[in-house]
From TrEMBL:
InterPro entries: MFS, MFS_trans_sf. GO terms for cellular component: plasma membrane. This is Major Facilitator Superfamily protein. One of its GO terms (molecular function) is transmembrane transporter activity. It is found in: Cell membrane. It is a multi-pass membrane protein. The keyword Cytoplasm does not apply. SUPFAM superfamilies: MFS general substrate transporter. The keyword Transmembrane applies. Keywords: Cell membrane, Membrane, Transmembrane, Transmembrane helix, Transport. Signal peptide: none annotated. The chain crosses the membrane at residues 12-34, 40-64, 84-110, 171-189, 220-243, 263-283, 295-319, 325-347, 359-379, 385-404.
Length: 410
């Protein structure tokens, strides 16, 4: 947290991300809530979901594209202006025309363009961001993760309130204003960022089809040289995937009964808050209270807590579910910034966009695939078998960790 107050560039870039995330979150909630009352709701929600997913899946391409950009600060400023213009046009369109499927298509197109540009901007600026926090990488990443989680919680709570008292047009305007604030924040520190940009190493060649795959191969080769760190990242990502799927399995497990007088929706909301609070606590304490605990020990603690979580779901012991969910998310919150710092401390600045996007792609695909498998088993056979499947995954992870430790000691 100290870095937030002492490093002006880090503070402003982080605040810019907070404002953008806040606006995006409340607008997404508002759109989903608003379209639910129309007969084209299923199609609208599908289109909106696709517009959210496509930029996520294109991150690897955007990361490589970001590594080949020059004049990154100027490009980031232009991207901010374009996003403001896009959402200003959308707001005017929503004000002047009755809401229909055409409005949804307009929202989807603008959201798709805006999110794609946002990821490109993030990966362009990644090298500058890491350069600014190089000496405090662990602390900076932990605080960033905790603050962004807190912003999403506040945005969800605010969105739940605002969608009942404001029109979709007003919320669209608020979203536009958050992008304006983010642009002004970037504009204020632009001269300092120009100086940072001059110091970082970057590619000065044009991106071609051949260069694309060559750069991807070189970036992954750099990443794979950090063998033990990559294995730890894989183990942590797998555990995050298990924690992510657990609320949905809990919902299926308790669907036929009330749990402590809570509805399924209330239960999921409570679990989401507990997991988020645990992750925030872990992120905040990662660089101070728990900095001397070894990675392998933290992984063992997390594996034990996840085994206890799966067992408590099996036994329908809701107090243990809450406790083990909190403990697991806290340990993962401690691990995550430490591992990211360990990776980015050794990645050349001209490859940071590609490496960052590759890690983000894995973070998205691993939980998604595991969730798909576990939920498919739960819905087609039984929740109990899905829990057995998670047991087997965890046992495999424990065995993999034992092998790595064995090889390291020999």
């Amino acid at each position: 947290m100290k870095l937030f107050w002492t490093n002006n560039i880090y503070r402003q870039l982080l605040l810019n991300s907070c404002f953008s995330s806040f606006g995006d979150s409340i607008f997404y909630l508002a759109i989903i809530n608003y379209v639910a009352q129309y007969n084209f709701a299923p199609l609208a929600i599908l289109l909106i979901s696709i517009s959210e997913m496509v930029p996520l899946l294109s991150q690897l391409f955007l990361g490589i594209l970001g590594d080949f950009q020059e004049n990154r600060v100027k490009h980031a400023l232009w991207i901010s202006k374009i996003k403001i213009l896009l959402y200003a046009i959308l707001t005017v369109f929503l004000v002047l025309s009755p809401f229909s499927l055409v409005s949804v298509i307009m929202i989807v197109i603008i959201n798709l363009i805006s999110d794609t540009l946002s990821y490109l901007s993030a990966y362009m600026m990644n090298a500058l961001y890491i350069s600014v926090i190089k000496d405090d990488l662990h602390d900076a990443m932990g605080f960033r993760q905790s603050l962004m989680r807190a912003v999403r919680i506040v945005a969800n709570l605010a969105g739940a309130f605002l969608i009942n008292v404001m029109s979709i047009q007003t919320i669209s305007l608020i979203n536009t204003l958050t992008f304006v604030i983010a642009f002004l924040g970037l504009y204020v520190i632009r001269h300092t960022l120009y100086e940072v940009e001059k110091r970082i190493e970057m590619s000065h060649t044009a991106l071609t089809f051949k260069k694309y795959f060559q750069h991807l191969r070189q970036s992954l080769a750099v990443l794979l040289r950090l063998k033990e760190t990559v294995i730890l990242l894989f183990l942590t990502t797998s555990m995050i995937a298990i924690l992510d799927v657990s609320p949905r399995l809990i919902a299926l497990r308790f669907i036929q009964q009330t749990l402590a007088q809570l509805s399924i929706g209330q239960l999921l909301a409570l679990l989401s808050i507990i997991i988020s609070c645990g992750a925030i606590l872990g992120n905040m304490t990662s660089s101070n209270l728990f900095k001397n605990i070894r990675f392998t020990h933290l992984l063992v603690f997390c594996e034990i807590s996840l085994l206890a979580l799966i067992t408590s779901i099996f036994c329908q012991a809701y107090i243990m579910i809450f406790m083990t969910s909190f403990i697991s998310s806290t340990i993962i919150g401690i691990l995550s910034p430490r591992l990211q710092a360990a990776v980015f401390a050794y990645i050349p600045s001209d490859k940071m966009g590609t490496v960052g996007s590759a890690l983000s792609t894995v973070d998205i695909l691993a939980p998604s695939l595991l969730s798909l498998l576990a939920l498919s088993i739960a819905s087609s056979v039984s929740v109990q078998l899905a829990l057995v499947f998670l047991y087997l995954i965890l046992i495999t992870l424990i065995f993999c960790q034992w092998l790595v430790k064995f090889n390291t000691h020999n």
